[in-house]
Prior knowledge:
Distance between the termini: 40 Å
Family: Belongs to the uracil-DNA glycosylase (UDG) superfamily. Type 5 (UDGb) family.
Protein name: Type-5 uracil-DNA glycosylase
Pfam family, one: UDG
Oligomer: single chain
CATH class: Alpha Beta
CATH topology: Uracil-DNA Glycosylase, subunit E
Keywords: 4Fe-4S, DNA damage, DNA repair, Hydrolase, Iron, Iron-sulfur, Metal-binding
Amino acid sequence: MSVSEGPRGGTDEPGYPERAAATAPSVAGLDERVTHCRACPRLVAWREQVAREGRRAYAGWDYWARPVPGFGPDDARLLVIGLAPAAHGGNRTGRMFTGDRSGDVLYAALHRVGLASRPESTDIDDGLRLYGTRVTAPVHCAPPANRPTPGERDTCRPWLAGELRLLRPTVRAVVVLGAFGWQAALPALAAGGWSVPRPRPAFAHGAHHTLAATDGGPDLELFGCYHVSQRNTFTGRLTPAMLTDVLGRAARAAGLTAP
């Protein structure tokens, strides 16, 4: 799908994500529209600056420098929600959680649980496949200092809500990495067809909540996990065993592994 087939209005308008996500006919169509979004000027400027300046370790790389869509099958039963692409990770490779230390930790754990074909992810052509699992984020552009503003988070939220809407027939469990992702995901989950309790569930590592469906469909199992950031993994706040445990419980809840 070309961007011209999407809704009217420029891709640099703040309302573009909401219009484009609401009318996306498929996960693939939504992913295509995501890659053309320019609704957040600060993020656009940063992702393109990073691509121009690069980093010595990646000399010769042609950076993606666009919003990074979700990665994984369009009939996933498990959705993993992070924070945002890394400046020299997903912003470089064009695939969520690819090519950085956080991705190394995440995909190694997904492989241990049987949800990924290989334990590492280096670039978009490395042959990695996910089984019944999709990886996405509430913010699709790399933010300065890895910190999107609340306004950028809210502008980008329709993409996640649209992704959840399109995955509604199959998705049965969600793992949210970190408190920022948790706060951003709850409104998107409510928009996607599930009832989020009030007061909203607090983020915690290992948290597990069942969200009742609002449309008569299956409920959703929601899990919290510390983010796979270097700060958490290098200090031992999040160990490989802790991550594997949460992903394993979520996979079983989604029906991807034996109980």
